[in-house]
Amino acid sequence: MLRLHDLSFRYKIPLRGSVLVLITALMVTASLIFREYDELRQDLATTSGHLGRVLANTLVAPLVHDDPWRAYEIINSPFHGGAQAANPQTASMVMVLDANQRVFVATDPNQYPMLSDPARANSDFYELWQAVAKSSEPDTRAVEVKGSETIYMVTPVISDGYRLGTLIMGYSKNAFLPRFFGIAKRAGLITVAVLLLLLPASWYWAQRFAKPLVDLSQSMGRIGVEIPAEAEIKIYESKDEIGQLGAAFKGMLQGLRDKQALEREVMVSERLAAVGRLASGVAHEINNPLGGMLNAISTYRRHGNDDPLAARTLSLVERGLVQIKDTVSALLVESKVQSHFLTRQDIEDTHTLVQTDANRKQVRFDWRNGIDETLPLPSTLVRQVLINLMLNAIQAAPTEGAVACTVERSGQALRVQVGNNGDYIPQERMEHLFEPFSSQREDGHGLGLWVTYQIVHQLGGDIVAESVPDETRFTVTLPLTEAAA
Amino acid sequence: MDRRTFLALAAAVSASPLCAQAQTNAAVRIGLSPVFLDDQLSFLNDWRDYLQGRIGRAVRFVQRGSYREIMDMLLEQKLDFAWICGYPYVRHKAKLRLMAVPVSDGRPQYRSYLIVPASDRQTGSILDLRGKVFAYSDPDSNSGFLYPRYALMQLKENPDRFFAKTFFTWAHRKIVEAVGSNLAQGGAVDSYVWETLQIYHPELTVRTRIVEKSPYFGHTPVVAREGVTRTEFDSMQEALLGMSQSIAGQDLLKRLNLDGFVSGEDSLFDGIARMMRALNGRS
Q1: Which tens digits make up the pLDDT trace of B78-126?
Q2: Contacts of B168 in chain A (CB under 8 A)
């Protein structure tokens, strides 16, 4: 039962359809057989009633004249058509009882010899007696004895009000059976034909009905750690309940995807913020003693002796310290640097600065500067961002590739878009793109994007990296607020 | 009533009584009784044609349900000739004239067979049928009534009480049917009829078993009523006796299962007369 319950709708629907057809066929057949039985009994009552009256009238003379042979010929006459076994309307046994309820004559003298008590041969007659005794009217009465295979038609033989004897005709119920079997067989054949017609139809219908459900359930099953992409989900388009369910499912998936993206973004920015705090903390801590050390070296040079070994050593130390200072100052993004507001020329300068690199790599540089006015943004920082992004793009672009840079005002914001057609950045790298030292490039210290990110965030802006094959694009949006000015 | 129905009725009316009357007057009337298989209507048709051809006169067969009716008609001169049983012949010999006796199995004689259902393997003589149901053919039959009663009397039994029940079937053929179907546990039948049935309807005789065979008696005679002219008598006798001489006649005799007809001696029926006297003396 449980297994049936667990079946897919693809099988449940045709199965239920077949069961319905079967039940209908059974009901119809049963009612047909019942009606046939009723009609047969009616017909039997009519024909045998008629026959009984005719025979009873004809039997008066043989009974009065004590002429069993004549009576035998009379009761045998209904049998002379032959093939009586096939016709349930033909009596299986006819018998005439005399006034003392003894056999006067019977169609089967072997079973019911003359003068014998018929109850001795067939116990049905014990019950039949009461019906026989009671029936004083000249009409034929049907008597059914419980548990007997025979329906008895009892007709009294009456002459001038005097009861001479009784005519009993027995009809075998078994003769009805072939007809019932015939009906059942026909009904069975029709049922099979209907099933043959209906099964493929209901199979097809079930497939159509179940497919959206099956698709939906498969899609749901695929939701795990990863939310399947829109294109991977097959949803049945309709306004019916399943269509609504699919649409709701789709909406839910979109919500899940948005949530997941948001979570990831939050995680990334939190991580970057933490790393930023750590880096700037460390940088500050290093910067102070570093300044002292460089000062000490400078002082020593000015006042110290000419020991060549010491000078060489100090020079070595100083180079190392300067390198540390460079790195530290790169980590220490200082937004509080005083600088003038951004002008169109500031932006054009950055283009000029990277031109050499671009020419060297023979990239096609698509430059668009849409800024005509002075914007309330610190020019130094914006220029650093622009240069970083453009140098990265030129670096990433293949030889004779393409780099595009657009700087424009978009409402109350400055928007910078830098793109190239180099190798695209895989998803797993995308998450750590803005972290320090994440670059896998051989040259550079890997702090370019980190610094860019820090600057953009300190200016209250936003940087988004999108990478698809043949295009990697960074979009920076910097708000133009009076506060920033 | 439409025109066609009217014409049909008119034709029927004109065809029946008056015309039939005219024919009857001219025809020789021959009564037939169930001493042979008188239910073969196509045979009777052929036989009548044959006889008409031989005697040059129309012949009409008259059949009735019992020997007695035929005898009554014969005695009332409503018939000219009749094929009857030896027993009524002996009784009414004075008013009848023996014309021909059939020959079956090479002799102008026949017997009475005591038969029982084939399923009955015990019965060895009529005495074993005490208290049973017994079928007689006709109260005017020798083989089917007179002889079995005589035989019982010879055995010191009262034929009226020996059986539980007796009934008449009014034909020998039906004795075979009644016994074969076990309606009667015994019956007495004309040996000639039984043997003929054996040939033409073995499905009937196979259901019976012959228990006893009586002595031979004079075969069922064809007789003339008194007052039949000599010419009529002679031509009819010649027609019957001559059947075995012609091919058509032989064919008819074959269908009757007879060898032929002979003129026969009155003494053939002495046995029947003796039995009749014995039974009459008893009652």
Answers
A1: 999 999 999 999 999 999 999 999 999 999 999 999 999 999 999 999 9
A2: 67, 69
Q: Which of A331, A355, A389 is the last residue of a domain?
A: A331
* A303 in contact with B, Cβ within 8 Å: no
Identify each DSSP E strand in A347-454 by its residue range.
Answer: 364-369, 375-378, 402-409, 413-420
Stated as kind and residue range, the H or E segment containing B98 is: strand B96-103
Type and span of the H or E element at A166: strand A162-172
What's the mean pLDDT when you consider all of chain B? Answer: 88
Same domain, A250 and A149: no
Q: What are the tens digits of pLDDT across the range B186-208?
A: 999 999 999 999 999 999 999 99
What confidence tier does A314 reach under pLDDT thresholds 50, 70, 90? Answer: confident
Biggest CA pair distance of chain B: 72
**Is ipTM > 0.90 here?**
no
B203 shares its domain with B160: yes
H or E element, residue A96: strand A93-98
Distance in angstroms (rounded) separating the CA atoms of residues A120 and A334: 129
The CATH number of the domain where B209 resides is what? 3.40.190.10
With b meaning 16 or more CB within 10 Å and e meaning fewer, what string describes A29-44? Answer: beeebeeeeeebbeeb
**Mean pLDDT score across all residues of chain A:** 82
Counting the structural domains of chain A, the total is: 3
Write the CA distances from A90 to A195, B105, B108, integer angstroms: 38, 44, 47
The pLDDT tens digits of the residues spanning B13-53 come to 444 444 444 344 468 999 998 888 777 889 999 999 999 99
How far is the C-alpha of A182 from the C-alpha of A335, rounded, in Å? 101
> pLDDT digit string (tens) for A387-412?
888 988 888 888 888 999 999 988 88
- Which residue among B174, B182, B185 places its CB closest to the CB of A69? B174
Query: Could you give phi then psi for residue B208, rounded to 5 degrees?
Result: -120, 160
CB contacts of A98 in chain B (<8 Å) are none
Residues A267 and A347 in one domain: no
A293, two tokens: 């050390």
B256, pLDDT greater than 70: yes
What does the alpha-carbon distance between residue B152 and residue B134 come to, in Å, rounded to a whole number? Answer: 13
> Is residue A396 domain-shared with residue A448, that is, in the same domain?
yes
Nearest CA in chain B to A71: B169
Question: Within this chain, do residues B93 and B125 fall inside the same structural domain, yes or no?
Answer: no
Task: With beta carbons under 8 A apart, name residues in chain B contacting A96.
Answer: none
B283 inside domain:
no
B chain contacts of residue A72, beta-carbon cutoff 8 Å? 178, 181, 183
**What is the chain A residue with the closest CA to B133?**
A114
